[in-house]
What we know:
- This protein is mainly α.
- It contains 17 helices and no strands.
- The chain is globular and about 70 Å long.
Amino acid sequence: MAFIDGTALNVALPVLQRSLKLDGSQLLWIVNGYTLFLASLILIGGSLGDVYGKKKIFIIGIVLFTVFSMVCGLAPSGNFLIISRCLQGVGGALMVPGSLAIITASFPQDERGKAIGTWSMFSAFTTIFGPVLGGYLAEAGLWRVIFFINAPLGIISILMLLMVKEPSRVQDIRPDWKGGILSVLGLSLITLGFIEASEKGFDAWWIWLSIAIGIVLTIVFIRTEKTASNPMLPLELFSSKTFTGANIMTLFVYGALGLVLFFIPLNLIQVQAYSETKAGLAILPFGILIAVLSRTAGAWTDKAGPKKPLIIGPVITGISFLSMSWIGITEGFRDFWVTFFPALALGGIGMGITVVPLTTAVMNCVTDTNAGIASGVNNTVSRLANVLVLAIVGAFALLYFQGNFADNLTDLSLSEQETTTLKERASRLAETSAPADWPESKRLEVSEQVRESFIRTFNYVALTGALLCFSGALISWLMISRKPRTIRIN
């Protein structure tokens, strides 16, 4: 549910932007609002599973996720959708850590790689259909159905879970609500500062105040976790070099992945003139290769350990993003096979090699009793990576687009008033257009400048993603062990 919701929505973002008349910062919030609450509360979700039962909390998460998915589908405005997405993230925070924790508790360590590989394969298969389904529904004007489809999926998931035996749980400990509140507030203020800066710039004093208070609250959160009787983020976990390295690598690679996958559909649909359905099909090779390679990567990890695949996978993914930074304006879908296909295929191979070894490396660092919190930490880092990298790099990308577009306008014969009008519209990224009452020739000139400016912005984003992936590979080489020591948290 979580995978298909995210991938389908990304492809539908251009249509959703036109339908609800959203600017670039609102697009960032629609993606980041969900991920922000998911990342901030997923550790609480893991702790609640360990205390009250992984199966019970998993089911509650599915219910909340499904209900607020329906509310998202009914959203009449951008701000309403943003709020609904935040509440959907609360359900996701209870749902996501339970899946891996249940698998980990059900299989011995020497069989866990294959089991997690199977889980990743099915997750990837649902991810495969997400972009295609999202593209088809968006092209048909049915983007709201992307949220409604979670209702039957939620019901089926709950019925299947009722047949699963409840894994062991820890009794008589209280969830770290103080830590949860501090993490939500800290991350929210940092995200607010950067995303709003994309529209208002960094000159506003309250932007810096928001970021500064968010950083202070995050530091207070970490200090609080050191003394908490039952911390949502047990810092003892990071005494393991492998656990620390795996999570740093997750921050880099998943941050890069979320960043690039946010901008690819905008590029394909709004600049390269793909239809929504063809844009969904274009992303298909990426998901297929992850699905195909997941179980093989799991078996490889069981035999050789996670270190080598966690170096090779991010390097291949980085090369994929680097190749995207060289793609300009193409002739549309007919150029797909010589432009975006090789890049996306490489990305799928790289992530297919990475996902299972990364998850296995993290879970093998802890005992079965602590599987929920370890899963929660790693999932938090992966979602936190999406939030922070998309907020920070996305903000600079929007500012870069606006500056580049403003510079390009000097090449056109525009009055001062016309130039001001276009600068005010530039917050909509590639959806920026001249007023309908302008002459057609002038509108076409503006459209061409919008496309050129967005391509430069996309190239900058893809290059940033590549650098993050190469950094992740370096961290794996330095910090990941083949057989890490097992940590037990009391």
